[in-house]
Amino acid sequence: MLTKCLLLLVFVTAVACFPNGTFTVDYKNNQFLKNGQPFRYVSGSIHYFRVPQPYWQDRLHKMRLGGLNAIQTYVEWSSHEPSPGHYDFEGQNNLVEFINLAQKEDLLVILRVGPYICAERDMGGFPYWLLRTPNIKLRTSDPNYLTPVDRWLEILLPKIRPLLYENGGPIIMVQIENEYGSYGCDLNYTSHLRDKFREMLGHQVVLFTTDGNGDGYLRCGRIPDVLTTIDFGSGTNVTEAKAILYRHQEFGPFVNSEYYSGWLDYWQSPFVQVAVNPFIQTLQQLLDHNASVNIYMYHGGTNFDFKASGNGGNNYQPTLTSYDYDAPINEAGDLTDKYYAIQKLIKQYLPDTIDDRNVKNVSSKMSLPPVNMTFLATIFDMLPWFVKIHSKYPLTFEQANQAYGFILYQTNITFQPTNPAVLAIPGLRDRAHVFVDRRFAGILSRTQKYFDLSILTHNGSELSILVENQGRCSFSCFSEQRGIIGNVTINKKHLLVNWTIYRIPFQEHSFTEIITQLSQPKTKFRFASSHYRIPSIYYANFTLPNVPEYPLDTFLRTDGWGKGIAVLNGHNLGRYWPVAGPQITIYAPGPYFNEAPDSNQLFVFELDESPYWNDPNNSCQVQFVKQHIVNGAYAH
Ligand SMILES: *[C@@H]1O[C@H](CO)[C@@H](O)[C@H](O)[C@H]1NC(C)=O
Ligand SMILES: *[C@@H]1O[C@H](CO)[C@@H](O)[C@H](O)[C@H]1NC(C)=O
Ligand SMILES: *[C@@H]1O[C@H](CO)[C@@H](O)[C@H](O)[C@H]1NC(C)=O
Ligand SMILES: *[C@@H]1O[C@H](CO)[C@@H](O)[C@H](O)[C@H]1NC(C)=O
Ligand SMILES: *[C@@H]1O[C@H](CO)[C@@H](O)[C@H](O)[C@H]1NC(C)=O
Ligand SMILES: *[C@@H]1O[C@H](CO)[C@@H](O)[C@H](O)[C@H]1NC(C)=O
Ligand SMILES: *[C@@H]1O[C@H](CO)[C@@H](O)[C@H](O)[C@H]1NC(C)=O
Ligand SMILES: *[C@@H]1O[C@H](CO)[C@@H](O)[C@H](O)[C@H]1NC(C)=O
Ligand SMILES: *[C@@H]1O[C@H](CO)[C@@H](O)[C@H](O)[C@H]1NC(C)=O
Ligand SMILES: *[C@@H]1O[C@H](CO)[C@@H](O)[C@H](O)[C@H]1NC(C)=O
Ligand SMILES: *[C@@H]1O[C@H](CO)[C@@H](O)[C@H](O)[C@H]1NC(C)=O
Ligand SMILES: *[C@@H]1O[C@H](CO)[C@@H](O)[C@H](O)[C@H]1NC(C)=O
Predict the structure, then answer these.
(1) Does the N-terminal or the C-terminal CB of the chain have fewer CB atoms within 10 Å?
(2) Nearest ligand to the C-alpha of residue 619?
(3) Where, by residue number, is the active site (predicted)?
(4) 500 lines ligand 6 (CB under 6 A)
């Protein structure tokens, strides 16, 4: 090799002569080798899709100063291929830039490609349109599934290959699937993925799997010729966990790919916290066992837009907009006690010369004068702007080719119903506002298992059902469609047919367009008291106070409002639902605000009731405040 190299020197520059970096598994000695030297990582999870792009560098920098030498991120297929064959790798989806920024911060990257990622994201990161193929069997070797998977990997993996460690990039390891052993046992599927990754990424890169620390998970999760790693949280007996791993993989480094700093959170449930001391204790045990560890999450971030998942199927629960996760770096990028405790511990294991004196532990926040929201239009006023479809039976979101948001189902009663009559929507996913002749009749909810509603209606009445998709499952029930699945009946015997179905995706583009139309003087709608509890849009133009350092991060507080979404300057900040809790405020990042006078636009689509209802003279305010509350009171 050396001789060859010296010979080459005669012809080419010295650079070509030095072999690129190497990152390998030394199975015999239970360790990794980086450039031939024993190596272990202490990594942290951060998901580029949950952190505003302008903050990527800030968060990565803080992770490096915390003492980490690597980061771990999932790749979210649904964000990159929103419709079949249409790809998005720009802006917030610029994965290559994110990986390059990590390298600039001297962080290695562990990439979890999926294609299934779970991650408490809508459909576990799968694009919804997969469900448009009848009988598709996700996460199996079903060709209906593997064909779009391969097409996606052939787009994604060539972008990844130049970023691999052996090619001068920061990526040391690539994960296949995600906790597959908790789900299935189609080894043709997982070995197909392995072979595809090898074909597209070459033979050098370390491929790995992650599964729960149980024999049952590892039996089907493990893929031959792929490094097996496990995941568990604090309080676990590390010696026992390690023994379980080695029962399935006799040699190789001991890796915990998800060491939990906190946990995911649901609406109407307590906010879960993991105490610092037990967290540090088990982390220390892991490090004493020479383990490589990834802390999940190190910085959780936010489920902006409609990307939060639900879980639980028949016990369906939607997750919060916040993905704070009680992580060492909190949702707004501030450093917590857990951060400093980890930093102190890591220093004993990964001696490093990082100068962390200038790390700012908490960034300044701004609070703004109350913003007065103006009523713009009810959902019924807006119908002419929505695309409509006619169908004998209700269509699901997927059948209507709609990813997220809302669908309004409308039909007329053509018989004489009993008084009262029971409307039944057994296939509701997930929450529905029912209107008879455009008057509020009640709310149905899958979470509450309320599928029947007693209503007053007559022959000729118009029935409207506005269904909110509260997030596809990320775990186990991810193959479920959304909207109304099945039929709707009155008194369980009259089948309702001939529906007009309005698609209301409220995606950035469509939202802004509708608002522009609604703001025209000729389409002005007035608020009327009969609008009591009709989902409506409210709007505000506002100016930031003239403070030199503004805009700064802040949190939207919607006391007095019920449930809805808030869109700031075209950025969907996600769902607010303070009456459900425990999340009371939603994160509004500084970079989403504008400085010029009158240049900030806030829209609120309120589903349940605005402060207007009780008092039309109410100024109908929302507030931007300095204090974030994700662990407040919750309904139960
Ligand atoms: C070294 O990295 C360069 C890109 O930086 C790549 O083109 C080349 O193939 C790599 N060499 C080897 C031996 O992997
Ligand atoms: C896996 O592939 C083999 C060989 O093609 C086939 O016999 C077997 O039925 C497949 N298993 C599954 C679960 O598809
Ligand atoms: C962990 O498990 C091992 C083996 O079962 C046992 O010897 C040890 O006492 C346990 N440690 C703790 C802290 O419980
Ligand atoms: C950790 O690695 C060191 C150095 O190779 C070795 O001496 C020690 O026995 C290892 N500890 C464990 C628990 O494997
Ligand atoms: C956070 O910053 C403040 C102000 O700079 C400082 O007083 C405090 O000690 C810092 N906290 C930690 C845990 O470093
Ligand atoms: C309900 O009846 C009215 C009046 O005939 C009609 O304009 C409307 O289109 C019907 N709605 C549906 C959903 O069929
Ligand atoms: C319902 O109304 C329609 C239209 O007015 C009428 O043709 C039909 O006879 C009515 N049905 C009953 C059961 O009254
Ligand atoms: C709705 O009812 C019709 C008529 O009974 C039936 O053909 C159809 O399969 C039902 N739809 C679903 C999704 O069950
Ligand atoms: C539904 O529409 C079809 C076709 O327009 C019509 O024949 C049928 O009578 C309608 N059914 C009801 C219950 O209105
Ligand atoms: C909001 O501000 C913009 C820019 O000044 C203006 O064009 C628009 O009419 C305003 N809208 C409302 C509803 O005040
Ligand atoms: C709203 O304000 C108007 C004008 O000031 C007043 O006449 C009316 O009584 C007020 N309504 C309520 C419910 O306070
Ligand atoms: C908001 O409304 C309140 C009460 O009507 C009023 O006092 C305040 O000046 C308004 N704020 C702005 C910024 O217009």
Answers:
(1) N
(2) 12
(3) 179, 258
(4) yes
